[in-house]
Amino acid sequence: MDKIYVTGGTPLNGTITISGSKNAALPLMATSLLTADTITLSNVPHIADISTMAHLLLQHGTNLLIDASGGNGGHLGGVIQLTSDNINNIEAPYDLVRKMRASVLVLGPLLARFGKARVSLPGGCAIGTRPIDMHLKALTELGAVIELTEGYIDAHVPGGKLTGTDIHFGKISVGATENALMAATLATGTTTIHNAAKEPEITDLANCLVSMGANIDGIGTHTLTINGVESLHGTHYKVICDRIEAGTFMMAAAATRGTLTLEEVDLDVMTATIELLKDIGVHISTPADNTLKVDAHNATLSPKNVSTEAYPGFATDLQAQYMALMLTIDGSCIIEETIFENRFMHVAELSRMGADILIEGYKATVHGGKPLKNAELMATDLRASVCLVIAALAAQGDSVINRMYHIDRGYERIEEKLAKCGAKIRRAR
Ligand code: EPZ
Predict the structure, then answer these.
(1) Ligand 1 atom closest to residue 128's alpha carbon, by position in its atom list
(2) Cis status, amide bond into 312, omega within 30 of 0
(3) What DSSP state is assigned to residue 243?
(4) Does 410 contact ligand 1 (Cβ within 6 A)?
């Protein structure tokens, strides 16, 4: 099981190219199930979750042609061609779904095109129970009959075709919006999704579906109107940049008081992160198109309270990274997690580095400025793991982070990208 060894205390200095978005690429791969034509995706990150989604689609019968250039650990990515003209299995098995909750995104497409699906319930994960009740409610409203048997979702569509309807989500859900959106593209009639999530990854999915012949209005808003079509055709589509990877490296640059230039960044989707880091005193500039320069060299930073929110607010996926940054700054602040019920798993490990953090419900009061001590650390989930990397980079001395597989799920060759910017970091078994 891979570990990361970090010797902290060196400011990052260099340039990093941001990869394609994990959370856009996963639903984009699932769109392959909506058509018999070939979908070609480019800028797909080489990460473990992409490999997992590829294996899931392969066992459904999708044909995959994949860019040979492997990324970290040879994970699939780059340019992927997907052709689902011979789907012979409508079951998504527990052993794959339990590894990656996003596997549930095959449910909507399978129901839309084939009128049936058997998908394992995802179960909980480190950051919370993460139910899928909203996914199932929306698909039921579209005409699916859903039973839960032996830990599986057994779903079928009487008459074979979903029927357009009005869907009202009680709260913002990225995955539920994605499942409903994909399902509605092939439904008979019009579907309006009210209180839809409008994360950039949803916009990317909607734009890709339109390039496949879907009829969608309201893209980029909380109200999506989909006029169902008879069928969808193939497309070539480039995955948007990973705003969470970009935000992660911005926090790492600030935490080490370094200077990083990030390339291939869509500045329009980074506003909340850019404004927050400017507010604490980080100098941020845009020296070229799709390029961000983060300069915290010799900067005097000040802490700032933050609450995670749905887009365009501050992303929950950057909460742990921001906490690590706050630990390097004199003063106290309150970080509130409003999206997930258990997303402070990183606090216990940070405390083992000497961090002074008090958790009260959904709020963490962070007392920063005390030197972080190196330690042997345990990763628990994707973003908590990268938070520990940032803390180790800012601490003095040698730290070890175990269970690197968590990080490999969502970050492409993270130790290579950081080492190129002066970090003393290496991977070993
Ligand atoms: C997506 O997860 C992302 N994953 C998450 O990123 C991200 O944190 C999250 O959206 C919020 O932005 C992918 O896109 C693959 P939700 P998702 O449905 O769709 C509750 C990462 O680190 N809920 O928006 O699962 C849920 O429990 C990952 O890259 C229900 O109650 O998130 C949560 O509290 C982590 N019922 C809240 O809504 C449902 O049916 C938001 O969840 C669905 C969700």
Answers:
(1) 27
(2) yes
(3) H
(4) yes
The whole-number pLDDT of residue 250 equals: 98
User: What's the gap between Cα 188 and its chain centre?
Assistant: 31
C-beta of 406 in contact with ligand 1 (< 6 A): no
139 Cβ below 6 A of ligand 1: no
Gap from CA of 407 to ligand 1 centroid (Å) = 18
Neighbours of 356 (CB within 10 A): 14
Per-residue b or e along 368-404, where b marks 16 or more CB atoms closer than 10 Å to that residue's CB: beeebebbebbbbbbbbbbbbbbbbbbbeeebbbbbb
CA 289 to ligand 1 center in whole angstroms: 31
Catalytic site includes residue 333: no
pLDDT bracket for residue 201 (50, 70, 90): very high
Q: Give me 358's structure tokens.
A: 């008090």
Contact 108, 155 (CB under 8 A): no
Is there a cis peptide before residue 200, judged by omega within 30 degrees of 0?
no
Atom of ligand 1 nearest to the CA of 102: 15
Å from CA of 338 to ligand 1 middle: 12
- Evaluate if residue 272 carries a pLDDT over 70: yes
Contact 142, 164 (CB under 8 A): yes
- Alpha carbons 410 and 418: distance in angstroms, whole number: 15
**Does the Cβ of 317 fall within 6 Å of ligand 1?**
yes
SS3 215: strand
Q: Is the model's pLDDT at 72 over the cut of 50?
A: no
- CA 318 to centroid of ligand 1, rounded, Å: 14
Integer Cα distance of 20 and 30 in angstroms: 16
- Write out pLDDT tens, residues 94-143: 999 999 999 999 999 999 999 999 999 987 677 777 789 999 999 999 99
Shortest-distance atom of ligand 1 to CA 175 = 19
Q: Is 20 helix (H, G, I), strand (E, B) or coil?
A: strand
Q: Find the catalytic residue in 125, 208, 241, 421.
A: 125
The residues that bridge with 117 in the sheet, in sequence order, are 155
| pTM for the structure as a whole | 0.97
